[in-house]
Design goal:
Length: about 475
């Protein structure tokens, strides 16, 4: 298929057709099919991450005020263990996946053969700017694809670091980093890709999907949404508060799977709030804005957006801000109006609304009345309560009695459902996302029973009915 840009790209004057063509040319040489090449590239990426730890941590600090531990665990460390896991299992993942063969096709063998898709586009988001760009790249590499990586322009230090490092370590005939914002993304989306993997908000997700539709390109959309957190009154409140604080205020709440709001039964809210306040002081001190472990808001536009959420709501804890950084302290809001922006939009920041319900079923109905979330959390001592919530709600992932920990298991696919996205990755699921599982049936010339060939007869038909 010729790779012609659409009108949109022509309008901006930016065109990446030559870039895509260059990668396609490398792809058709077959070099990425080689398992050896893939492993060498994965090891080169690993070296890149290890040898440049200092610069990586600095870039993340400048972009998001990310503390060293969070940067090492959720970005660099996450990627290193993803590479190790991939290298450990790749020999198995590339193998044909055998299935049985019906008698009519005997003698024969049936299997699915993973094959690379070709040249793929990976568009990253700013909140985990390294992880969200390179984790899909690890999967794309492992599956034997060429790739263009488009980091988020909002995390500009990380973006330029990746653009500088990738050509130093990787086979540049098979990967390119393209920096930029809307115009560059639009021009990239105008090209024909073999897959587009996008992480970011819903509005741009729709733009990506309609651009992909012009070329019938498959997409993975890793989107967001409001992830609810149920807290039952019968729960280990101390551990609940500790794990909730960890998951909500990591990266100053700018995590796609952070709990967006909490649902508790009426009468329990003050006990819950006291426990969270106590834990916040324990983890971030009296003033989180003074803590070196507490991050910044990505930019002033997002800071202003978050600030506006605090208009006419009942702030029961926090609310301190430092516009120069910019940063906002962990903030608890009790019973905001359900029509307020804070309950209508994804917060994606350090504000936690608490809403009360008469019982958990009312909470379940509340969640089911809204778009399907990316993640859902439930804390309770009762397995019955937890199972009830799991079975009566729909979300990309569920985690009980903890937050975000499912991300540590590469055996679990990560992705959304409904408005929180489509497709998934991590571990073998990422490899499969960037592979075509080609159906193969291998037949032999032995035993050519003629009953399926014309001229047909009643006998042939009855035999066909029996065996098909
Ligand atoms: P963003 O602003 O970094 O945008 C994401 C990407 O889209 C960037 O690379 C950007 O350049 C590109 N982009 C922006 N405008 C575009 C346009 N008009 N056309 C084409 N591309 C365009 O990130 P964001 O959207 O602010 O990200 C926040 C959202 O992402 C939240 O909803 C969050 O929940 C979600 N998110 C999801 C995941 C996940 O893994 N599911 C991870 C992180 C963030």
């Amino acid at each position: 298929m010729p790779n012609r840009p659409s009108l949109h790209a022509v309008e901006s004057g930016i065109c990446y057709v030559d870039t895509v063509q260059k990668l396609n040319n490398s792809y058709i040489t077959g070099k990425t099919q080689s398992l050896e090449w893939r492993k060498t590239q994965l090891l080169a990426l690993k070296r890149m991450l290890e040898e440049n730890q200092h610069d990586i941590l600095q870039a993340l600090k400048k972009d998001l005020g990310k503390c060293e531990t969070e940067a090492m665990v959720a970005e660099q460390g996450f990627l290193l263990s993803d590479i190790d896991h991939t290298l450990k299992h790749l020999d198995k993942w590339v193998k044909p996946r055998k299935v049985s063969t019906p008698i009519v096709a005997w003698p024969g063998k049936s299997f699915q053969q993973p094959e690379p898709l070709g040249t793929v586009l990976i568009i990253g988001a700013w909140n985990y700017p390294l992880q969200l760009l390179l984790a899909p790249y690890i999967a794309a590499l492992a599956a034997g694809n060429c790739a263009v990586l488009k980091p988020s322009e909002l995390a500009e230090e990380t973006s330029s670091l990746v653009a500088r490092l990738i050509p130093q370590y990787m086979d540049v005939s098979c990967v390119e980093v393209i920096e930029g914002g809307k115009e560059e993304s639009t021009a990239l989306l105008a090209c024909k890709w073999d897959h587009i993997f996008y992480t970011g908000g819903e509005a741009v997700g729709k733009i990506v999907m309609s651009a992909a539709a012009r070329h019938l390109t498959p997409v993975t959309l890793e989107l967001g949404g409001k992830s609810p957190c149920f807290v039952d009154k019968n729960t280990n409140l101390k551990v609940t508060a500790r794990r909730l604080v960890w998951g909500k205020w990591m990266n100053a709440g700018q995590t796609c799977i952070a709990p967006d709001y909490v649902i508790v039964e009426k009468g329990f809210e003050h006990k819950f709030i006291d426990a969270v306040k106590k834990e916040l002081k324990k983890q971030y001190g009296k003033s989180a804005l003074m803590s070196r472990d507490y991050g910044n808001i990505i930019n002033h536009r997002h800071f202003k957006r978050l600030e506006s959420y605090l208009d006419r709501v009942n702030v029961v804890y926090g609310g301190e801000m430092d516009e120069t950084r910019p940063a906002m302290a962990p903030t608890l809001v009790l019973e905001p109006s359900l029509d307020s922006p804070i309950m209508k939009e994804e917060i994606f920041g350090p504000i936690l609304p608490i809403i009360t319900v008469n019982n958990m079923d009312e909470g379940i109905a509340f969640v089911n009345d809204r778009a399907k979330p990316l993640a859902l959390y439930a804390f309770s001592d009762s397995d019955e309560v937890l199972d009830h919530i799991i079975s009566r709600t729909s979300s990309g992932s569920v985690c009980t009695n903890d937050t975000m920990m499912f991300m540590t298991n590469p055996e679990l696919p990560f992705g959304g459902v409904g408005n929180s996205g489509m497709g998934s990755y991590h571990g073998r699921h990422g490899f499969d996302t960037f592979s075509h599982l080609k159906t193969v049936m291998k037949r032999s010339f032995a035993l050519d029973v003629p009953f399926r060939y014309a001229p047909f007869s009643k006998l042939k038909l009855s035999l066909l009915k029996k065996f098909l």
